[in-house]
């Protein structure tokens, strides 16, 4: 079951992070939060997570920068950790950049509801 | 002109001297004869020679003077008249003056004067017309807001209007005689497209070249975006080999960019609150216990409206992307049957809520389709949304049918709604078009079908509609099995078959449900 799975939510919009977390926690995941890109990158490197949900437009570091830091040539993030971008930026070039930087997924927030996200997560981890 | 009488006097004087030479010669002759005789005879000669000279010379002088006058008067008159003619006075009349040859000359001069006057008055009126035309042309060229310039056969500028000066910050004096590629270098991706075209089309009379969005640097270094039109004119008598007009698009372009930026920003900013509205509504739907049936219904209606708002925003953003050429498709190997079923499940909930019957008819198996599922989903969702809007609750029935036609896969969405007036059908797939009869009943933006058409065409397919008033409509699209991505060269994941783009984004290895 999902009971032992851990998720890091890197998202500067606290209410949105909490909204998704409520449903994910209801499904049995353990959810940790980071409210800016720099903190998120630090947490991701100091601790193992099964999944990182990553916003793009954030202070300190953008999601793409965090992704590149974790997945880059001298990447310090665990390769076993799935990283999914969760953003409202729908531009193709951002999506392609995320793909190039080895994200495992790219999801438009406004197009899904928390229960759908839970469904996606259950298939990923 | 004032020297004229003097010249006549001089001639008269010359004549006078010649005439007075005659008696002098007579005297000289006498003198010579007498020199052969004696002194006595000389004395005799001297005593009568003086009176003879006086009597002989005086009448000769008077006669010669009269003769000279008679001879020179008509000549002088004619001379004066010719000078008058030269002065532009054609009114002078010569007829009846003088006698013999002089009269004939006078008549001939009259004719010359008349002819000259006629020719000159014709020429004057022609000059006036030419002058007026030139002023008109100058006025038109000067008043034009588009830049106009003309080139000679060596590609040098020979005409440059006021707007051209204002737009480029260069004066006619600066550019006159300069090569167009030096002072007016219109570029497209760094290439001098216009001057190169002109060089290749030299002599091809009336050939017209048109370019849009060319870049041109002003004298102050600022760049302009212009539409350019050039016409080749090799037979022009004024030596104009080509005429070029250009229209400033810089402001339009800036506005267009602002519009696109605004739409992208607005879409992002609007999505954030919408995410929360939809998210918390979803949580409420799952967690709210003990809601009355009415309250549950309110909640469901709110969810439906939030979804509709979400769809409208997606369409607005899609249009902005189409306009900006940014609708980049990422075709991938797609199990179309699974994809349609998945989309159908999502739409089924909406149809049920709106009390429409939604049916899916699919063949047992289909080959793999190369397509962008996220884009095709937009098409199916838009078509089904339209069908829901134009059918009645309770009786509305919508059928999605998938079939294979040789190397194409066909998808149709059939409804039993109000149908579309035949005069509206040609406009149906254009931007912002809404069927006037339906404006009061439907809430669309007029963008959905425009987006559908753009998406299907980018897949190398086509979309059309059959409809009858009162019976309903069938929207059908066909996409080739090997989709041709017409918009962009292969993106990284075209060949990455492990990527699945679902309805709401993409996930590696795992499809989104």
Task: Give a topology summary.
The complex is a heterodimer of chains A (125) and B (513).
Chain A: E1 6-10, H1 14-26, E2 30-34, H2 37-46, E3 51-54, H3 63-71, E4 82-87, H4 92-100, E5 105-108, H5 114-124
Parallel strand pairs in A: 1-2, 1-3, 3-4, 4-5
Helix pairs in contact in A: 1-5, 2-3
Chain B: H1 4-35, H2 39-86, H3 101-143, E1 147-151, E2 157-160, H4 162-168, H5 172-175, H6 180-183, H7 193-200, E3 208-217, E4 223-232, E5 242-248, H8 250-287, H9 293-323, E6 332-334, H10 336-353, E7 357-361, E8 369-371, H11 373-389, E9 397-405, E10 408-415, H12 448-458, E11 462-468, E12 472-480, E13 499-502, E14 505-508
Parallel strand pairs in B: 7-9
Antiparallel strand pairs in B: 1-2, 1-5, 3-4, 4-5, 6-8, 9-10, 10-12, 11-12, 13-14
- Computed Rg of chain B: 50 Å
Please name the fourth-level CATH homologous superfamily of the largest domain in chain B: Histidine kinase-like ATPase, C-terminal domain
- Reading the helices and strands of chain B in chain order gives HHHEEHHHHEEEHHEHEEHEEHEEEE
**Beta strands of chain B, count:** 14
Average residue pLDDT of chain B: 80
Mean model confidence by pLDDT of chain A: 88
CATH class category name of chain A: Alpha Beta
Spatial order of the strands in the main sheet of chain A? Answer: 2-1-3-4-5
**Beta fraction of chain A:** 15-25%
Largest sheet of chain A: 5 strands, parallel
Span of the ends, CA to CA of chain B: 110 Å
Class of secondary structure makeup of chain A:
alpha/beta
Spatial extent as radius of gyration of chain A: 13 Å
Instruction: Tell me the name of the CATH class of the largest domain in chain B.
Output: Alpha Beta
The succession of helices and strands of chain A, N to C, reads: EHEHEHEHEH
What fraction, in percent, of the residue positions of chain B are helical?
40-55%
Strand content of chain B: 15-25%
Instruction: Provide the CATH architecture of the largest domain in chain B.
Output: 2-Layer Sandwich
Major β-sheet strand ordering of chain B: 2-1-5-4-3
Largest interface: A-B, 37 and 39 residues
Got a strand count of chain A? Answer: 5
């Amino acid at each position: 079951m999902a009971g032992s799975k851990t998720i890091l939510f890197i998202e500067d919009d606290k209410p949105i992070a909490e909204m998704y977390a409520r449903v994910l926690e209801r499904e049995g995941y353990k959810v940790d939060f980071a409210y800016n890109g720099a903190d998120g990158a630090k947490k991701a490197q100091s601790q193992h997570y099964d999944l990182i949900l990553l916003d793009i437009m954030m202070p300190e570091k953008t999601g793409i920068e965090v992704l590149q830091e974790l997945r880059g040539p001298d990447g310090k993030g665990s390769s076993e950790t799935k990283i999914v971008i969760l953003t409202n930026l729908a531009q193709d070039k951002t999506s392609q950049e995320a793909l190039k930087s080895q994200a495992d997924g790219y999801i438009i927030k406004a197009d899904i509801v928390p229960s759908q996200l839970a469904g996606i997560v259950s298939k990923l981890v | 002109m004032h020297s004229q009488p003097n010249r006549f006097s001089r001639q008269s004087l010359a004549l006078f001297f010649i005439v007075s030479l005659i008696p002098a010669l007579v005297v000289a002759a006498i003198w010579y004869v007498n020199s052969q005789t004696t002194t006595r005879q000389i004395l005799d000669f001297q005593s009568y020679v003086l009176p003879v000279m006086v009597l002989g010379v005086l009448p000769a002088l008077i006669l010669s003077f009269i003769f000279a006058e008679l001879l020179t008067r008509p000549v002088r008159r004619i001379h004066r008249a010719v000078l008058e003619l030269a002065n532009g006075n054609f009114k002078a009349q010569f007829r009846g003056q003088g006698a013999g040859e002089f009269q004939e000359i006078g008549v001939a001069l009259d004719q010359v004067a008349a002819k000259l006057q006629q020719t000159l008055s014709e020429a004057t009126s022609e000059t006036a017309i030419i002058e007026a035309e030139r002023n008109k042309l100058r006025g038109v060229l000067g008043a034009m807001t588009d830049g106009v310039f003309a080139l000679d056969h060596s590609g040098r500028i020979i005409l440059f209007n006021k707007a051209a000066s204002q737009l480029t910050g260069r004066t006619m004096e600066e550019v006159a005689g300069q090569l167009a590629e030096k002072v007016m270098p219109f570029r497209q991706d760094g290439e001098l497209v216009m001057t190169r075209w002109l060089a290749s089309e030299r002599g091809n009379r009336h050939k017209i070249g048109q370019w849009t969005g060319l870049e041109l640097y002003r004298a102050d270094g600022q760049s302009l975006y212009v539409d350019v039109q050039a016409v080749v004119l090799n037979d022009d008598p004024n030596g104009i080999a080509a005429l070029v007009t250009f229209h400033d698009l810089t402001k339009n372009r800036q506005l267009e960019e602002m519009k696109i930026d605004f739409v992208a920003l607005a879409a992002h900013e609007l999505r954030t609150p919408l995410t929360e509205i939809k998210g918390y509504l979803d949580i409420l739907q799952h967690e709210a216990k003990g809601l009355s049936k009415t309250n549950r219904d309110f909640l469901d209606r709110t969810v439906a409206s939030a979804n509709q708002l979400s769809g409208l925003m997606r369409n607005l953003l899609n249009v902005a992307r189409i306009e900006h050429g940014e609708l980049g498709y990422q075709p991938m190997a797609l199990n179309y049957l699974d994809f349609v079923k998945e989309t159908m499940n999502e739409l089924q909930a909406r149809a049920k809520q709106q009390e429409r019957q939604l049916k899916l008819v699919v063949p047992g198996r289909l080959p793999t389709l190369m397509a962008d599922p996220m884009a095709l989903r937009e098409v199916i969702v838009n078509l089904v949304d339209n069908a829901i809007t134009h059918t009645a609750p309770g009786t509305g029935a919508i059928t999605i049918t998938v079939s294979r036609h040789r190397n194409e896969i066909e998808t149709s969405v059939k409804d039993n709604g109000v149908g579309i007036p035949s005069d509206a059908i040609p406009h149906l797939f254009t931007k912002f078009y809404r069927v006037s009869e339906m404006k009061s009943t439907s809430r669309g933006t007029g963008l959905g079908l425009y987006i559908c058409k753009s998406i299907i065409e980018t897949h190398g397919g086509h979309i059309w509609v059959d409809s009858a008033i009162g019976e309903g409509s069938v929207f059908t699209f066909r996409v080739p099995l090997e989709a041709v991505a017409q918009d962009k060269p292969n993106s990284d994941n075209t060949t990455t078959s492990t990527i699945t783009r679902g309805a709401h984004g993409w996930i590696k290895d795992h499809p989104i449900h």
